[in-house]
Amino acid sequence: MHTAPVRFLSDFACQTMLIGEGDPDCLLGNDASSSCLHYCAPTHGGWGVIRTALLVPEMYMLFVCPEACGRHGAIAAYEHGGKDRVGYLCLEEDEIAMGRYEQGIREAVPGLFKSLKRRPRAFLIVVSCIDDLMGTDYDEMISGFEAEFGIPFRIGHMNPISLDGKLPPGKRIQRDMYDFIEAPEGRDDSVCLVGAFQPIAKEAEIRELLRANGMYSLLHISECASFDEYQRLGRARLNLVVRPEGMDAAKNLREKFGTPFLFAPVAFSESTIAKRYDEISRFFGANMANNMANDAVNSRRQAEKRVLEAAGGKTIAIDNTATCSPFDLARALIEAGFNVSEIFTQKFPVFDRPSYGWLAENAPGIRVTSPIHHSNSWLRPDTPTADIAIGFTAAYLTNAPCVVPVAFDEGMYGHHGMVMLLDSLELALQGRIPGSLEQMVRDYGLVV
Amino acid sequence: MSYLFQYLPPFAADYSGVASALHDLGGLVVIHDASGCTGSFTGYDEPRWFSGKSSVYCSGLREIDAIMGNDSRLLDNIRSIIEKKQFNFVAVVGSPVPMLVGFDFDGFARISEEEFGIPVFGFPTTGLARYEQGMSAAFLALARRFVGEPEEKRKGANILGASPLDNFDGDTLMRLREFLAENGLPVVSVWGQGDEWESMPKASSASINLVVSAAALPLAEYMKNRWAIPYVAGLPLGEETARELKSQIKQGGGGAVARSGAISETDKSARVFLIGEQLRMNAFRSELLFRYPSLDAVAGSFFAWNASLSSDGDCFIENESALIRCLEEGNFDVVVGDPLLRELMPGGLAGRFVEEPHYGLSARLYREHSLSRRFCSASFMDGIAALALGAPAPGGERAAA
Fold this sequence. Notes:
The complex is a heterodimer.
Chain A: E1 16-18, H1 30-34, E2 38-39, H2 48-53, E3 59-65, H3 67-79, E4 86-90, H4 93-98, H5 102-115, E5 122-128, H6 129-134, H7 139-149, E6 153-158, H8 169-178, E7 190-194, H9 205-212, E8 217-219, H10 227-231, E9 238-241, H11 247-257, E10 261-263, H12 270-283, H13 289-292, H14 294-311, E11 315-319, H15 326-335, E12 339-344, H16 353-362, E13 367-369, H17 376-379, E14 388-390, H18 392-398, E15 402-404, H19 414-429, H20 437-444
Parallel strand pairs in A: 3-4, 3-5, 5-6, 7-8, 7-9, 9-10, 11-12, 11-14, 12-13, 14-15
Antiparallel strand pairs in A: 1-13
Helix pairs in contact in A: 8-11, 14-19, 15-16
Chain B: E1 3-5, H1 14-22, E2 28-31, H2 36-45, E3 55-58, H3 63-68, H4 71-82, E4 90-93, H5 96-101, H6 105-116, E5 120-123, H7 131-146, E6 157-160, H8 170-182, E7 187-191, E8 208-211, H9 217-227, E9 231-233, H10 239-250, E10 255-256, E11 270-275, H11 278-291, E12 295-301, E13 315-316, H12 320-329, E14 334-337, E15 353-355, H13 359-362, H14 378-388
Parallel strand pairs in B: 2-3, 2-4, 4-5, 6-7, 6-8, 8-9, 9-10, 11-12, 11-14, 12-13, 14-15
């Protein structure tokens, strides 16, 4: 009889491995992450809790936390033009020790309503890691505020201490921000995009596919100019989740209003995209998706051919800030003839594992490297270890001279998403993306 | 009691102060947090991070570790890195969650030091205090542990407190070195940034300390008491401050360069409020009043505050609402401060606000600002005076960002 070998922490946490040879558990996932000190590259960050939540129009956020916990979000809020919608109630040690900072909140909120230039339509009180350990009950306070001010209040969490849990901050904040949606009076011919930080490009073939199924609008929260418009998201017939951060929001909306959802994360390889479109078509009871995508496939293949000529055999590094599906992106590029040499990620999501398996079989020499492993701080090369980097972290950790500044799948979906990425790669190869990596990172305004 | 920041960002925290002070010294610095605290330091409070290879890490604290007191994971993870690379020391730096669960920093440091055989510090920072407190604690810990006994012949000066969080950069340090060289004082060591690890143990051999930020005053006092090294506190920004500092150096230190308005209430023509790091604002005041004696100028700071370096009317500003009160009651004609303060200016003061970015307040938003721009910058003082006295500001350097 065989029993599973006992594994110790020291068995985990390598910095890099070849995809065809290594054990992914040593590098990817929570066990590996917890068994090393975390390096925090200057490209660390993303949309963060604040920038994400501020997508809800006319909402005000009050963070209730130690002063330090609010700093990064506040600076980012200035950078993204939202500081007038965010305040901080900074806690003192005695209040934390005695667990009695509710009184501070009860006093601060009415004061804010008096001083805010625009009265908010929704109010999110965000607590931090320490609240996870204190278990404060806010229900009564929230009900009281809702009665007093006549707008919805919610409690949000910015609690990276739960990063390895079932509801980490990135997912939780999306659940909380869509929780302001009220019960819809009916449905319309729209699909709501959940999980994405930006709308999918207008030219993307997914829109045509949805139109063919009678869905004439693909809604995204960032396009709602007012809190009333935001309520329209609740009338969608389907919530299409294209990044994993949106999963708990979609589950919550299904539970509250019965809105179905489909998890079809961003993909790049032709076969994975075809699978996604099959799933979407099946939802609508149709079987036409891949025929409809023919034009998009042709455009994509032309773009691949054109950009491949420019890239030649140059090595490409990819990271998981560029996309939630870095293994599938690598597969797509390799299938098109590009030379992918390295993938930076510490995550191993179920939806990207088939492409990991494909790569292990078909491109076993690709290095997979954890961007948070401690040795990155001294192993970062002075001379480039890749010619092209897709994503800021890959750029920083390889010192690649050619940087493709895509981030968090913004605007990308389906074959058109691949074309967008290739267009950006072409511009980078032509030296037409201005600025140093530091400038690009600064312009993007990554939020911790 | 909790306090509100409606307009301003929360300020750089104590753990950023510790990590910043240790950044260039070849140590292994571990911020014991989940992610955000380290990210705040590396992404927002540390301008050297992008191009540096310093070893500042996040412990990756998770809920289960905090609840179960799983300190052995931290110990294991530190061990695994020490086995691969040599460090001058280890520093474990606190954040809010370790404070809440009562993590024993001293005990952890003792155990770790015994096991690893290299110096280990535990800094019980909480995220509730501001950067200068962390910086002061780090400076003192380094001095107590690593500075040796002085050589027989003392020579040169230490520069204490030249932190990027107070906008000191390479150009500013060069200015300070030039000033000391003009006064026959080679630099022995620099505390705050950019110095070699090897020079720190020799700091006690300096004949005098130049303190350039209030956060370093506890260190200066410690070195005075321990090794009888006198200090002068101030910045040689221009003719007047350089003269004052030079005079104090000649006298063997022991004083500050704060300067009172020194004219009667009835004679003063306009009132300037200088908000920022205390020694920087004191230097601005000296230069301003030297050129425009009829002005009245008071200083205020959210950060390290030393009463002996303040003049009548100066004040420590506790938080945002305290500043709002100050501005309402102060009857000021011009305010100098970080650009983010502009939004708090009442009435016409917004139009008479002079920007002077402070990294500890606005972080990377105005990262290009170098304090070196204020050296020998008469036009900056002229701009302030022109606004105060009602004349149009002469082009020059009034907006810094």
